[in-house]
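Next up, sample data.

:::
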Amino acid sequence: MKSIPHPIQYQGSKRTLAPVILRYFPPDIDCLIEPFSGSAAISIATAARRLARTYWINDLNQPLSELLRLIVESPKEIALFYGQVWNEQHDDSLAHYYKIREAFNRTQDPRLLLYLLARCVKGSVRYNTEGLFNQSPDKRRQGTRPQMMRDNICGVSLLLKGKTKFTSLDYRAIMS
C-alpha cells in the first residue's frame, strides 16, 4: 500500500505518530484493542503493516464509532452518501454546513458526521454542554473531495473488513 488511508481528519489523531508508536508493538498481535479510537489511526496503521489478526475499535462517541463501522463494513454506501452531501454545498457552503450540523445534532446520523469532520475547523470535534456538535466550518476549504474520500474509505475497508469489532463503551469496560 503506497500510503495509509485516512478518511477521518481528527484533531489529536495519532496518524503521524503511528510509525513511531508501532515500533513498540510486538510483531504478532492476536487482537489489537483501541479503547479511545478517535480516527482509528493506530488500528489502520497496524492493519497496513499486518501486525494484528483482529481489531477492537472503541470510542465513547457513539456516532463516531458507528461511522467507523460504516466505513469498514459499507464503504461504497458511505462514500456515495458523502459525495452527495459534499456536492450539495456549492451554492452556499457555510449555510450548507450549518444545515448538516443541525441535522446531525437532531438525528445523530453518523453519515452526516463524516462531512462535518471533513469540513470543520482543524478536524476538531467539539460538543457543547447539551451534547450538541458545535464546531464551526473551516471557511478556507470545503473538505475532502469525494473521489479522495472514496479512495480513503475503500482503503480502510480493505484493511479492516471482516476482522474488526466496533463498540461505544466506557474504556473501563474494554480494559476489564
Q: What stands out?
A: The longest strand covers residues 52-58. The chain has a mean pLDDT of 93. Residues 90 and 138 are 14 Å apart (CA to CA).
